Amino acid sequence: MEALLSVGGSIASAVLDNLVSQVTSDAIQQFERHSGLQDDLRKLRTIMLRTRFILKSAEKRRTKDDDLAQILQELKDTAYDAEDLLDEFEYQVLRQNAKSQENQRGSFLSSSFTLARNVFNRDGDAVAKVREVMGRLDSIANDMEKVFRLLDLDDEGKKYQRSARRETSSFLTEPEVFGREKEKEQVIKLLLNSEDATEPGDDLIRVCSKRQKKDSISVLPVAGIGGIGKTTLTQLIYNDPKVNGYFDLKIWVCVSDNFDVKRLTKEIIGERLCDHLNLNRLQEILKEKIMSKRFLLVLDDIWNDDCNEWHRLCAPLRSGLQGSKILITTRSQKVAKMMGTMEAVFLKGLANDAYWEFFRRQAFGSQNPKEHPELEAIGRKIAEGLRGSPLAAKTLGGLLNLDLDERRWRTIMDSKIWQLKQGEDDIMPVLQFSYQYLPGYLKQCVAYCSVFSKDYAYTKDQLVQVWMAQGFIVPQGNVRIEEVGSEYFHDLLGRSFFQHSRKDVYVMHDLIHDLVQSVSVDVHVRIEDGKWPEIPSRLRHLSISTKNLEPSKLMDFGKYKNLRTLVFDNVYDTNFCFVLDCLFTVSTKIRVLKLWSYRIKELPENIGNLKHLRYLDISSTNIRRLPESLCNLYNLQVLNISGCPIENFPTCVTNLVKLRELKADEDTICKLADIGKLTSLQELRVFKVVKQRGHKIEELKDMIQLHGRICIKNLESIESKEEASQAKLNNKQCLDELALVWNIDRGISSGNDDEVLEGLKPHSNLRRLEIRNYGGVRFPSWLEPQSLKNLKAICLENMQSCAQLPSLVQLPLLEILRITNCPTLRGLACLPPSLRELSLENVGIDMLPESWDGDHGFTDESSMTQHSRSSSRTSSISHMRICRCPNLVNLEQWLLSHHLPAIRFLRIIDCQKVVRLPMERFKDFLSLEYLTIMDCPLLPSPVQLILPSSLQELTLDSCGHLDESLPGCLHSLTSLTWLKLNRCPHVTSLPGEVLGHMIALRVLIIRDCGELRSLGNLRALRSLETLHIGRCPRLTVLANEEEQGEGSARLLFLHTDDTALVKVLFSTITPPSLEALEIIDSTELILFAGEEQLWLQGLKSLRWLRLVNCNNLQSLPTELQSLSTLRLLEITNCPEIRSLPEKGLPSSLEKLHFDNCHPVLTAQLQSHREMMKKSHNVIS
């Protein structure tokens, strides 16, 4: 263990950084002035600075000295004790402040601090405690100096020497590479893709000309966590014949953590050079070497994220012929983003089948796993937990291969991977290098994640809050501490310690979690599944997730007085509250407390003992009452009571002046009176105005730290502009979004809405404004550019009296305008060119607003002069939705392609009076991708409708005579992926020559087209995945058997009401990939009879079969049992089916739904479902 740099030293240094910041805080300085501890605290500060200086100096060297490791551990313990001591001082400041406010005696008084000192001294001698910590820190600093002096005499510790670098070469070390074919082809394609590549035989003038056009060389990053196979994949690519044939020169350099530009330049040159050459001469030599060649340079294992150093290295590399590439491998997404000029290739774990094959080779060698079935089962379980990491497979597989003994294999399976003996090139040492490379403040953050389970879903905000609670985040000037923590998180994300899972949710790879556990084993314990591991004496962070709760064992944790984290996940016992009561009596240093169980009904009163508590999460418990002692938790920063049936808050809950986040349901928050006293709150999602003390709008006046979004409801409870202005919204400079809402059920307006809205002027930093249920007739004067210069979105809803919207054209950043249910709004002024989204629903306008200045009023493009074209301003609108606007008649004058060049989404829905659209000009909307025209019954037959080839989704639904343009308007739609034709009575056919052009079509939906008689060659739709045909009674002609195509090859979902169509469509080819078949509203008596049963049996991938509203259907298909992949069967409203087929149902079924079936069939289905339960199939 490299004690100083890997774990102990850096974390101890980070803790000392926090301490130095804490001991110089305002609260501590105020305390020392009034407590008689000035001299002692100043000495403590000096000793901390000295200790930190020694430690920082020591970080320039590396050693494996065990004595030093012990000293560092003692340093951490002492630093934590000092942190707790200072925390108690700060607590007294907060407590006395709360008492002073209760007594209405103002802020800090000297007499108050005399009281604070006396109270503190009752718990122990403060002077003695400070001096004890000083003595320990001073002694440790002296010990460290002595050790370093001794180490200076030893060659091992003289000066900082980098550890031996892990060296790689271009030679493939693996005899066979598994499961990377797709990634290999992807990277090779990117490397060989160079449209303007220069050939070695090109003349010099042409070469120079091309080189001048080239600003920088192409850099392709391959990124992923350690051990995922980046180097192996790169070796495979480097030695590929296609790569060898394309590049004139190939160079491989292993960079590792020593990014020295001069060293790397020498290695790229690859020749023996004089040591005295400076960087300039080296770069000249490199330039000469590559300038007439197309080269591939591999830089393996890069850690450096200094862009200046990177640009210095690349300076001469730009002289190579075009088509030259640099391929880098890195664990850091930040490095990949900084260095890459191409989209990075991120490697994930190997797919299950390929991974097992690789793991099997490592574990069994030449042995056949089938000859050792018990070992194969163990091996598969071990492999499953490695999440596709090739290096982990080599490490564990190699250990297993030493002895094919079941007992040994079970021992390895039950062990933590980091507890197993490994060489320096095995998985844990390789991953640990990622950890060692972190700065100390990030090490403690990532190590803390060991309190969470492997499959835990992290959110950034929650992680930052617990890091704050533990004191891991050091304040940086006036920067909000949550923002500093967010930078920490994104740094770790960029270094692949976290991976993005879904929106705002992140996960940690299992092997990274194993690494985190290995570096925190001395202070963290997580108890799962009733397994109680050995508890370290220095335990500080405890997480328990087990159904087998033993109160006696829990009581044992009472002897660990230094606990800082206590997490109970779905843990409960009838004596649970008593256990907590005992723990809170002894373990009073807890900073993070999470209690997650719906069966918890109360908190013990002595939770007030936890004076260090900063994070309390009791969400989704059944707690109805918060104890009064909760109000003594003056350090509390986060209180999460969401999902709790809280009936009311304690009397003095507003004493929690450091509370930064209150997570609670809307109704719960609105029960809190005097919320305005919680001036540290960073977020208040909703505030309901009530005409009673503690709930009026004035509560918001001092809450100047509010960030994010606030929705203020019940504005009808405000009586005047003066009262509204008491909210002082104009001093909330950190608010991004503001929603102002009147109660929609209030009845008749009081008539003061105009005044109230005028008094609610927000700060000019506001980005989004929503106004709902406003009864006034005019908009406020502050809705103008000078007051809202940063506004990006305006949403207006349910305004029954406003007739005119003020001009928005001068709002420079406005991107979104949504107006809903404003039937009296007749006019919209000119819109700003910055607008990107316009949505109008149930708005009374009879013409659309101008989105530009200059040429409004021209009837068509041909009427405009060249001068008016050049002087007009184009719009940035890309999304436009016009819905239920009953007065709109003509859209032709507004939809002009040269003014809407960016339009991508256009939806015109339920505009009953619209009679004119620019049919012949749709082809000019070159960016249009999504077009929907629905419920516009008065649209005439177009002279010519040609749609742009950019179109990806098209929906025509009840659009008057517009459908007469079908199928002609579908020509050339080669990018179309979605086509829906619904209620199109004039379409009679879709011939194959039209469908054949739609090579990208994935979804085809045709419904209620009563005159549709024929469909062309659907097999030509090579990308088709979903086909939905229904209520087309005249449709009888489909593709002939002679017509060719592979349109069924990818079909996944088929919905129809007539299986005769299915028979014609797939008479010669059964769709091998079909996963879901829905037959709904069919009038047939029999399904899949005769030869059709062969087609049904050919559905080898079918997982989902639904029969719904088939009122005439007499029986189920006789060969239903042959569908061996079927997982779900639904039979609903099919009353004439009297029994199951003789051969029964498939054994693969997991879900069986039925409703409104014949009584006999219902009984059989119920019996079958009971049988499935007994065989443990999944039922829902």
Automatic annotation (TrEMBL):
Organism for this UniProt entry: Phoenix dactylifera
Protein name: Disease resistance protein RGA2-like
Recorded coiled-coil stretches: none
Thylakoid found in the keyword field: no
Every NB-ARC domain range: 206-365
Molecular function GO terms recorded: ADP binding; ATP binding
Domain (Disease resistance N-terminal): residue spans on this chain: 16-102
Keyword GTP-binding among UniProt keywords: no
Family membership: Belongs to the disease resistance NB-LRR family.
Gene3D superfamilies for this protein: 1.20.5.4130, Helical domain of apoptotic protease-activating factors, P-loop containing nucleotide triphosphate hydrolases, Ribonuclease Inhibitor, Winged helix-like DNA-binding domain superfamily/Winged helix DNA-binding domain
Gene designation per UniProt: LOC120112450
Domain Disease resistance protein winged helix: 451-516
Domain R13L1/DRL21-like LRR repeat region: 697-822
InterPro entries reported in the protein's UniProt record: Apaf_helical (IPR042197), Leu-rich_rpt (IPR001611), LRR_dom_sf (IPR032675), LRR_R13L1-DRL21 (IPR056789), NB-ARC (IPR002182), P-loop_NTPase (IPR027417), Rx_N (IPR041118), WH-like_DNA-bd_sf (IPR036388)
UniProtKB keywords: ATP-binding, Leucine-rich repeat, Nucleotide-binding, Plant defense, Repeat
GO process annotations (BP): defense response; response to other organism
